[in-house]
Specification:
four-stranded antiparallel β-sheet, Chitinase A, domain 3, 29 helices, alpha+beta, single chain
């Protein structure tokens, strides 16, 4: 047994020695070790990637770094790292730092490349939607999927049999929405949905363009009555990701597979794909049709637009014409300029005319749309930029889009695989015994699950997640809900719980897995502590310590001197005649009140008086009359267009500024003094020992 313990001890010593060799201690500060990796990371970051790693350069940095770490240790000794404000701020920084690590980078890069390639193309498609909630129950999902499947078959000429229609009717009556409506004797929505299926064959045979003519009869999209499901041209990041993918992956002329999005189930028919025409900026002059226009209204609009067009052709300023005549009041104030747009945003006739203009400055003949007449002028056209030029912007847009979740999903699956994820759904499903309608009323309690025995539901990385853990999570997710199947709801919440715990597990491993993350996180942590400590010891203290500030002022007030100043009274006169009157009254020893009353008797604009002190160099005219008494000649102020009579009352010799007069500079100097005193204290308190053999290996 003794031999075995010796072997184990030797093995551990070998492992420890290996770890020390990989990341040795580079210095100690009051016997607290600092590893080489930390010093090297900060050193390289502050000196650039290509550092000058001469012994002199590295040794000079030791003083800066050791002082920095001494401040951090001082902050810890004062308990600043235990404050809730510190923990909250650091937690926020950590979430930001962790975000790029909690997603699969390969997936994100592929999404970015895919988005750029798709941006080169525009797709025109129509769709039919069967609306379905994201959290729908299985019975509602089954009804919606059955209905969209029947519709997809029908637009391709395959119609449901009487048996299939009958089976669908049973599904429909069993859905959450319809069962409630029928119980309340409301059958309208039930009839609409049933008729959309019963009449598929008849509607198909009566249709000219099968897909678009069937869309108004079958689609739950409210806009379908206006557009027959036609979405015009669109490009990347303009539709939800699954829908976009179906559009780009379906060949022209064909019907897509069934697509599930957050809105429900869709099928698409793709009519065209074309190279992106880029992004265009135009201005337009619009002659709008009134509501329900008569033939005379339309004739008047045509006459008006032709008159404006004649002015454009004759060389009149397009911007001025838009401001004066355009009925589009949202753009007319800007000279008719519209926001930049790509294909698919405006009526087809408008876009064809806009993109048909060959050069900036070209304008179209009057163009008719459903809204009225337009004359369009091209301002600028930008083609699809190179990938590197839009990479950052595209990355931000992808990150804001739902597709960004794909990176998270991929990471979750990878973490599960790498860390031996195992689950026992039987133990999860035991919650059917303790969950009831009180959960829907948000009154259910987690301790009701204690009777289940706290068995393991899943295991990740050797850590067990139990029924009690899940019960606590369920309680946090409670909210008032409409009547639904509680067991099915539990399964949805269970999926969320697993995902959160997997991400939480990966988050806890970041410091160990990624050196860059660990270094950056430590840098943020130490930086916050350093800021808080410096604020406490120097910055805020200099502002709040009024007694210390006054003592510092008394000792150093001769450092804050006013140079020689002239105390001056300036009489600002409306004209030269008034300035002469002022001079006369000054010679008669009249005071300012008497002079103002006399001069401003006819108008308060005649004279104003200002008393001010000037340093040499602040007023050229005063500099030329740096003696007490009335200046020999008047000064014409061109800016105010007034004549000034200047009286130098006295010359004030050099003197210390009052504390209030020098508070800004004084406070800054007091901060410097406090900082110096504090650094002296730190150097006396913290003893630094550097291991030169390790320091010499820094690269």
């Amino acid at each position: 047994m003794k031999k075995k313990n010796t072997i184990v001890a030797l093995a551990l010593a070998t492992v420890f020695s290996g770890l020390q060799a990989q990341d040795p201690v580079i210095m100690t500060i009051n016997n607290k070790p600092v590893k080489k990796s930390e010093f090297e990371a900060v050193y390289k970051k502050n000196n650039g990637k290509e550092v000058n790693n001469t012994s002199k350069s590295v040794k000079e940095y030791v003083d800066l770094f050791s002082l920095f770490k001494s401040k951090v240790f001082e902050a810890e000794s004062l308990g600043l790292d235990t404050l809730s404000s510190f923990k909250s701020e650091l937690s926020g920084y950590r979430r930001q730092l962790a975000a790029p690590y909690l997603t699969d980078k390969n997936t994100n890069e592929n999404l970015l490349t895919e988005a750029y390639e798709r941006s080169k193309m525009e797709v025109r498609a129509s769709h039919i939607l069967v609306r379905l909630d994201e959290t729908a129950l299985p019975k509602d999902t089954l009804e919606a999927f059955t209905r969209i499947t029947m519709i997809r078959n029908a637009v391709q000429g395959k119609f449901p049999s009487a048996v299939e229609i009958s089976n669908y009717e049973k599904l429909l009556k069993n859905t959450t929405e319809i069962s409630k409506l029928l119980a309340g004797k409301d059958s309208n929505i039930y009839k609409i949905k049933m008729n959309s299926i019963r009449n598929l064959e008849a509607n198909y045979k009566a249709a000219n363009e099968k897909f678009q003519d069937l869309a108004p009869k079958t689609s739950d999209d409210p806009s379908v009555l206006d557009n027959k499901g036609d979405l015009n041209y669109f490009t990347v990041l303009e539709m939800v990701y699954p829908f976009e993918s179906a559009a780009y992956n379906t060949p022209v002329g064909q019907i897509s597979n069934i697509v599930r999005t957050r809105f429900g189930y869709h099928i698409l028919k793709v009519y065209d794909k074309r190279k992106s025409r880029g992004e265009i900026i135009v201005s337009h002059i619009m002659v709008k049709f009134p509501k329900n226009p008569s033939d005379q209204d339309k004739a008047n609009a045509k006459t008006k637009v032709d008159e404006i067009y004649a002015k454009v052709k004759s060389g009149a300023d397009f911007k001025e014409l838009a401001i004066q005549f355009s009925d589009d009041k949202q753009s007319s104030d800007r000279g008719g300029v519209l926001p930049a747009f790509k294909g698919g945003k405006w009526p087809k006739e408008f876009e064809e005319a806009a993109f048909g203009l060959n050069n900036n400055g070209d304008y179209s003949a009057p163009v008719l749309t459903n809204y009225g007449w337009h004359i369009i002028k091209r301002i600028d056209l930008k083609s699809v930029p190179e990938f590197n030029d839009v990479k950052n912007d595209l990355k931000n847009r992808v990150n804001r889009d739902s597709r960004s979740q794909m990176g998270r999903v991929a990471l979750i699956e990878k973490v599960k695989k790498d860390n031996g994820f195992k689950e026992n759904l039987k133990n999860r499903d035991e919650f059917a015994k303790v969950l009831d309608t009180t959960y829907l009323k948000a009154t259910w309690k987690a301790d009701r699950a204690s009777k289940l025995g706290n068995k393991e539901i899943f295991n990740l990385g050797g850590k067990s997640y139990t029924q009690n853990d899940f019960a606590k999570f369920l309680e946090t997710q409670m909210t008032f809900r409409s009547s639904t199947d509680v067991f099915e709801l539990m399964k949805v919440i269970y999926k969320t719980w697993i995902d959160e715990k997997v991400i939480e597990f990966e988050d806890s491993q970041l410091d160990k897995k990624y050196v860059d993350f660990a270094n950056l996180y430590r840098e943020y942590r130490d930086g916050i502590l350093l800021f808080d400590l410096t604020d406490q010891k120097v910055w805020s203290k200099a502002v709040k310590d009024t007694s210390g500030l006054r003592t510092f002022y008394e000792k150093n007030k001769n450092n804050y001197l006013w140079n020689e100043r002239a105390d001056v009274t300036i009489y600002k006169c409306l004209n030269e005649k008034i300035s002469k009157e002022v001079r006369k009254m000054l010679a008669e020893k009249k005071d300012d009140k008497q002079i103002l009353e006399a001069i401003n008797k006819s108008s308060q604009l005649n004279l104003s008086i200002e008393s001010i002190q000037y340093l040499k160099g602040e007023n050229k005219f005063v500099d030329e009359n740096w003696n007490t008494g009335i200046a020999a000649k008047d000064f014409k102020d061109e800016k105010e267009n007034k004549f000034q009579v200047v009286v130098v009352n006295k010359i004030i010799p050099k003197a210390p500024k009052t504390l209030g007069e020098c508070r800004g500079n004084l406070t800054a100097d007091y901060q410097t003094y406090l900082d110096s005193e504090w650094l002296t204290y730190l150097k006396s308190k913290y003893t630094v020992k550097v291991f030169d053999d390790v320091l010499s290996t820094v690269k």
